[in-house]
Design a protein that fits this description.
Chain A: This is Peptide ABC transporter substrate-binding protein. The complex is a heterodimer. Chain A is α+β, with helices and mostly antiparallel strands. Chain A is built from 17 helices and 24 strands. In chain A, the strands form 7 sheets. A 7-stranded mixed β-sheet of chain A has the order 7-8-9-1-10-22-11, covered by helices on one side. By secondary structure, chain B is mainly alpha-helical.
């Protein structure tokens, strides 16, 4: 089906000549999943008017829900979203602060402090893609009674991009320009056409802090702001107390800007401990209502769930556990740099070897025996939102096929059973971080590879070293001084642009950029670069989605990247709790709508 | 006496300096920085991370960072935590009450078990009581706290559902209800730590008392016709206490240092859990402050133990 056909079909749906169901059926016939088809309709402007991205909110009055107790096994240490390095702190800040809009789990935007989501139809999005105009909700008050206005929004931009303040969020703000149009309108201007315009002021990094509390601390003295520990926000819950690294308490905000919200009277977020006992405190004893990020073996979770008090919530997002096959030679030094882009990996430059490697990992076993519900097998690198998921990739586990491939390519077994060709032996160092499921994955891979005449030398590095940016350390994942490595990469936004820049040539990790480039596998493709640049400026959502699908197919098809399992976020909650969760935003992104059913 | 104390305090200064140098170097050599979580987050450009490192002075040479830290410390400025961006002394003070209460209670419990049981067992060596006490003591200090902690949680929280296993500092109750809740949640951590410590101390007290029981002055006292209770308390226990006092005094810094494992299991927000989370996050100022205070306390209590000797045994003189 060509793009023109697709457009024709969409036009027919818009005119009412084709039913939405009929459209989905036709899409299914050409291999597109139903969610993807509906997504295509949605972004092409043919979605039903009342598309429900968040569940309906039932309570008819504010409060009366008693206490909500949330357990984090990592404790929050600060409450300023601009300093929040990890999700724990972002979540804790999000209890009090709100962005203009948040990401629902279907990958659509939901207005929070904005009156509406900007679009081309309502004039919010400039047709040249160079600016987006946000209309702010009127009548919103900070917890201390002051009015929320465009000045606050502009201030957050100035605050975040100021190097003296040293914020973590500056990446979202430093390249844009923010203009106050009137008291309730701000315009974000981009230096070039930007199809992904919903970054500044949106989601976890978009939380807005009050100007009147921070304006005197918008420089090197940012640390001294009292509001860093006593936040004054706009959210449904007001600050009560905070002990860094321990717990956080909040209470209902009687002046919240959304009707009948929140449901709970008080809120407690307790931090610390370990994931398994956090799961117990919810699922087994029911002491807590919700426990965050259940990095616990699925078998244990299933056993705890059997107590019947709580359940596991699985939210499918973009995180993926995958293997990289180094495109460069880690054992050859060029100008004092290993894995230099001027070298080629002696074995992995042969596509047959890479294809064999992709055939030798049993994703089914990984899903069944290691990750369970927390790791469904996948063939794609880019899995979500569904509109970006490629239908073209397949995965397969076949030792026999791998052997045939290698035989055909001339890799013959030596006396020790290891294949070699022209003096290059198929013996690879396979590194990852210390983490039980990863070591088990390594073992499974090694066994299968052995049967295909490939020897994998397993290496595991402590996570704090592996994921550090320490330039002096040779074992970091960005240096990649090994033949293969494996880790999880996350996709924090519902747009894949930032996610897919991991394979563009100008991001290649090297000595020149202190190994800070994001293309760690050091794979290069002119076609990939070209399509990526086009996608960066492509304003048509359908075309853009097609481009990202093509990018996924290119890099996965090269087999330098071997996707293993998706890593959805897993959390535990009591049976009667109704949390509103999202894969593309923080756990607390819609805390105002959490309720309990009687 | 005063001269002795002054001299000891002066000697402590170079040792504290040495300790701080070693700690700082080890921490500086350790890989990683407080911003690891940013590394795998594609939304944060790497140069933002580099700028953050620079803003915290992490890119300066080690000796400069150390001198900077030392001069600030001498001025009473403990620095600020990299991860929570608030002064370290505030962080520590926030944790102190809980630590002192929980760990202190466990030490009191340990003493309350070790002294009577140890003395009683030693005065009747190889009796049934001694055998049982010995066996239990061995069991007690052979089981690591993380194991007994989990065991207690399994039994009292999950099987019986009597006690909570998540320690909460903010209990919304007042009066006796507050105390009741506080005691309920403290029972398990105090038991775990107290029994472990108590078991070890019981063995120690027993052997110390056993050493004294056979001495001549005890026989003399007995031949004078003194009552058994008086002999035990005045003639045996007082003499046997000297090594015990050292041991207990050396244990006292732990009351402030917290117990890393137990605090982690029961989510007690004490100094131990502050230290471990700071280590995991590479939060150098916090690690430095906690370990440095700990080192200072060890030196101080050592001195205190030495001074106490003089009171327990007037024959010891200070020169």
């Amino acid at each position: 089906m060509t793009e023109d056909d697709l457009r024709g079909l969409i036009a027919r749906v818009k005119d009412g000549r084709l039913s939405r169901r009929g459209f989905v059926k036709r899409m299914a016939a050409v291999g597109l999943t139903a969610p993807m088809a509906t997504q295509i309709l949605a972004i092409a402007g043919a979605a039903p008017a009342a598309a429900q991205s968040v569940p309906e909110y039932k309570p008819t009055r504010r409060g009366g829900g008693g206490q909500l107790k949330i357990l984090y096994w990592q404790a929050a240490t600060l409450l300023n979203p601009h300093f929040a390095a990890g999700t724990t702190n972002q979540d804790a800040s999000r209890v009090f602060y709100e962005p203009l809009a948040g990401w629902a789990t279907d990958g659509t935007l939901v207005p929070i402090l904005a009156a509406e989501i900007p679009s081309v139809e309502n004039g919010g999005l400039a047709s040249d893609g160079r600016s987006v105009t946000w209309k702010l909700k009127r009548g919103v008050k900070w917890h201390d009674g002051q009015d929320f206005s465009a000045d606050d929004v502009v201030f957050n931009w100035e605050y975040s991009k100021n190097p003296a303040v040293a914020t973590v969020t500056s990446g979202s703000y430093r390249d844009v320009n923010v203009v106050k149009v009137d008291d309730y309108t701000v315009r974000v201007e981009f230096p070039q056409p930007t199809p992904f315009w919903a970054d500044a002021f949106v989601g976890g990094t978009g939380q807005i802090v009050p100007k009147h509390q921070f304006k005197d601390y918008a420089g090197a003295n940012s640390r001294d702001a009292p509001a860093n520990l006593r936040p004054v926000g706009t959210s449904a819950y007001k600050f009560v107390s905070f002990a860094p690294g321990d717990n956080l308490r909040a209470e209902l905000n009687p002046n919240y800007h959304m009707n009948n919200r929140p449901y709970f009277d008080t809120l407690e977020v307790k931090g610390g401990g370990d994931a398994v006992s956090a799961a117990r405190a919810v699922l087994q004893t029911g002491d807590y209502d919700y426990a965050w990020n259940m990095q616990v073996e699925d078998e244990i979770l299933k056993r705890l769930e059997a107590a019947g008090r709580g359940k596991i919530n699985i939210v499918d997002g973009g995180s993926i556990e995958f293997v990289q096959l180094n495109a460069t030679d880690p054992n050859q030094e060029v100008d004092g740099e290993r894995a230099s882009i001027r070298t080629q990996h002696p074995a992995f430059r042969d596509p047959a070897v890479r294809q064999a490697m992709a055939l030798l990992i049993d994703r089914n076993a990984l899903e069944q025996f290691i990750y369970g519900r927390g790791g469904p097998a996948t063939a794609n690198f880019l899995n979500n939102p569904p509109r970006f998921r490629s239908p073209n990739m397949r995965w397969e586990f076949s030792i026999q096929k791998a052997n045939e491939l290698l035989d055909a390519a001339g890799w013959a077994r030596g006396r020790d059973g290891i294949r070699a060709k022209d003096g290059v032996r198929l013996k690879f160092v396979y590194q990852t971080s210390v983490n039980a499921p990863r070591q088990r994955t390594q073992a499974i891979y090694k066994q299968a590879a052995q049967r295909a005449g490939i020897d994998l030398e397993l290496k595991s590095v402590t996570a704090s070293v592996f994921f550090s940016s320490d330039v002096a350390n040779p074992d970091t994942y960005t240096k990649f001084y090994a033949d293969m490595q494996m880790y999880t990469t996350t996709m924090p936004q519902a747009d894949p642009e930032r996610f897919m820049n991991q394979y563009v040539s100008w991001e290649i990790s090297s000595k020149a950029n202190n190994w800070q480039g994001r293309n760690i596998v050091r794979w290069r493709s002119e076609e990939y670069d070209r399509i990526f640049r086009e996608a960066q400026g492509e304003l048509d959502p359908v075309k853009r989605a097609a481009m990202f699908i093509r990018l996924n197919d290119l890099v996965v098809g090269s087999n330098h990247i071997i996707p293993l399992v998706k890593r959805p976020t897993v959390s535990a909650s009591l049976n009667n709790l109704r949390p509103v969760l999202s894969a593309w935003d923080l756990t607390m992104w819609y805390l105002n709508d959490w309720t309990r059913e009687a | 006496m005063l001269q002795y104390v002054t001299r000891r305090l002066l000697i402590a200064i170079p040792s504290l300096l040495g300790i701080s140098v070693v700690l700082f170097t080890v921490l500086a050599l350790a890989p990683g920085d407080p911003f690891e979580e940013l590394a795998t987050n594609p939304a944060v450009p790497p140069d933002v991370r580099a700028a953050l490192r620079a803003s915290l002075g992490l890119d300066d040479p080690v000796y400069l960072r150390y001198l900077h830290w030392l001069s600030a410390m001498l001025r009473g400025d403990w620095g600020f935590s990299f991860v929570s961006r608030i002064p370290v002394d505030q962080l520590i003070l926030q944790r102190l009450p809980t630590t002192v209460a929980v760990i202190g209670a466990s030490q009191v419990l340990a003493l309350a078990i070790a002294l009577p049981v140890g003395v009683f067992a030693a005065t009747r060596p190889y009796s049934i009581f001694d055998q049982i006490a010995n066996t239990l003591a061995f069991v007690g200090f052979s089981l690591p706290t993380f194991f007994t902690g989990l065991l207690l949680i399994m039994f009292f929280s999950i099987y019986l559902d009597w006690l909570p296993f998540v320690f909460r500092t903010n209990i919304e109750a007042t009066g006796w209800k507050w105390w009741w809740e506080m005691i309920r949640q403290s029972i398990m951590p105090v038991l775990v730590l107290g029994l472990f410590q108590g078991a070890a101390w019981t063995r120690f007290v027993r052997s110390a008392v056993l050493d004294v029981v056979r001495l001549d002055h005890v026989t003399t006292a007995r031949s004078k016709g003194l009552s058994e209770a008086r002999i035990t308390l005045k003639h045996i226990v007082r003499n046997a206490m000297i090594p015990v006092v050292t041991l207990v005094a050396l244990q006292m810094p732990a009351v402030f240092g917290g117990a890393i494992v137990t605090e982690q299991i029961f989510r007690v927000p004490g100094i131990g859990s502050l230290l471990i989370s700071a280590i995991l996050a590479n939060d150098t100022p916090v690690i430095m402050a906690v370990t440095f205070v700990f080192a200072g306390l060890v030196i101080l209590f050592n001195l205190l133990a030495d001074v106490l000797y003089g009171w327990l045994d007037p024959r010891i003189s200070f020169r």
